[in-house]
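YM 10:42: Probable membrane transporter protein sequence, as discussed on the call
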Amino acid sequence: MAEPGLLITLFLIGLVGAFFSGLLGLGGAIILVPLLLYLPPLVGVGTLTMKTVSGITIIVVFASALIGVLTHNKNRLVSKNLVLIMGVTAAVASLLGSIYSKSTSSETLLVIFAFMAAFAAIIMWLPKTELGEDIAPEDVTFNKIGAFLISVVIGFIGGMVGAPGAYIFTPLMIYFLGVPTKIAIGSTLGIAFAASIFGAIGKLTTGQVPYLLTLAVVIGAMPGARIGAKYTKRVQAAALKKGLGVVIAFAAIRMWFDVLHKLHYLK
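YM 10:58: structure's back
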């Protein structure tokens, strides 16, 4: 039975993490994974392994991404073509990755997550002039083959680490598919939701989800995601991009510090 202090901490992590994920168009894993790994031991309420964290986050992303995409769709910031092509592809790939992760160690999952975060951080800080601020979601054009390939790779890897890859889908859509920032943010949550469905099925059927701990995070994440998504339309695209870059860079640095420490490169 989990300690009350741990459950309260997990609830607050879900609330805060989902707020920023909804605001920045993230499924939430890029924020939740570092918080779940490092905050509980920091406040003295327990320690979670990367494998446990990956099981929690895939379920939380499912809940928060659903709420976020519904809100963004109401604000006309979701491209249904993007979600259909990339979401379905990522969902199937995520299922395969989540099942494969059963035989993968926590240390390996941490290294994979750290690589994904670092790659996304580098992409987000590349200079780019924002275009298409006034383009309607149904008018957005993109390379369908490129979208498919991105979804296969990120979906599979994301399914392994319990992170459907929203934090990396968004920059790839902006910089490689030429999707306007706000529509990329809104559409990414739809893709993350689709991917998290199958990813969650894979984690659940292979016994990788701690139910009580996950429930505590989900209860906090549901209102947090809704509130965060409501504020997206009020913030300029450039500010959103910078905010996303800061969040991803911070998470990547902290992940790699932990990876190097576990590999005994840091004492």
